[in-house]
Amino acid sequence: MYLTPGGFYFGKAGTRIKTILGSCVAVTLWHPELRCGGMGHFMLPCRGQRRAPQAAGEWDGKYADEMMHLFMARIRSSRTHPRDYEVKLFGGGNMFPALKSRPAREGVSARNVEAARVLMAAYGFKVAAEHLGGDGHRSLVLDLDDGLVYLWYKSMKS
């Protein structure tokens, strides 16, 4: 299945989740015993204005903080815990490295990377691997059969 920006998927073995990343960040989770997990592809750390959705169905995977609510709902419903999952983080590439209008640490890609790291720690996940930052785009595939993530990275400097 293909995950578009803002997309979220959580399921069982037998599924491969694919996505393409620029400044967005993908979070992959995989439970090695149950062979389930998923991917969230967020575009921004949070909404401009904070609001609490009335129902779980109103969380939007475009935002890192809301994507985590989606993951946590699925983790609770599967009666597992964040510590049970292999977590990998990808993306956050600077897609416009030639533009020097603001320091790189203030750009959306850097804010996305920081949000991913902060949220993983806040929810008790241990990150097993990451491929974050840089100045290019990534394609990746998460295989829920074995938890492997296949990554292709293209730097804009090449």
From TrEMBL:
It catalyses: L-glutaminyl-[protein] + H2O = L-glutamyl-[protein] + NH4(+). Keywords: Chemotaxis, Hydrolase. One of its GO terms (molecular function) is protein-glutamine glutaminase activity. Its EC number is 3.5.1.44. SUPFAM superfamilies: CNF1/YfiH-like putative cysteine hydrolases (SSF64438). Signal peptide: none annotated. It is an enzyme of class 3 (hydrolase). One of its GO terms (biological process) is chemotaxis. Belongs to the CheD family. Probably deamidates glutamine residues to glutamate on methyl-accepting chemotaxis receptors (MCPs), playing an important role in chemotaxis. PANTHER family: CHEMORECEPTOR GLUTAMINE DEAMIDASE CHED 1-RELATED, CHEMORECEPTOR GLUTAMINE DEAMIDASE CHED-RELATED. This is Probable chemoreceptor glutamine deamidase CheD. It comes from Acidihalobacter prosperus.
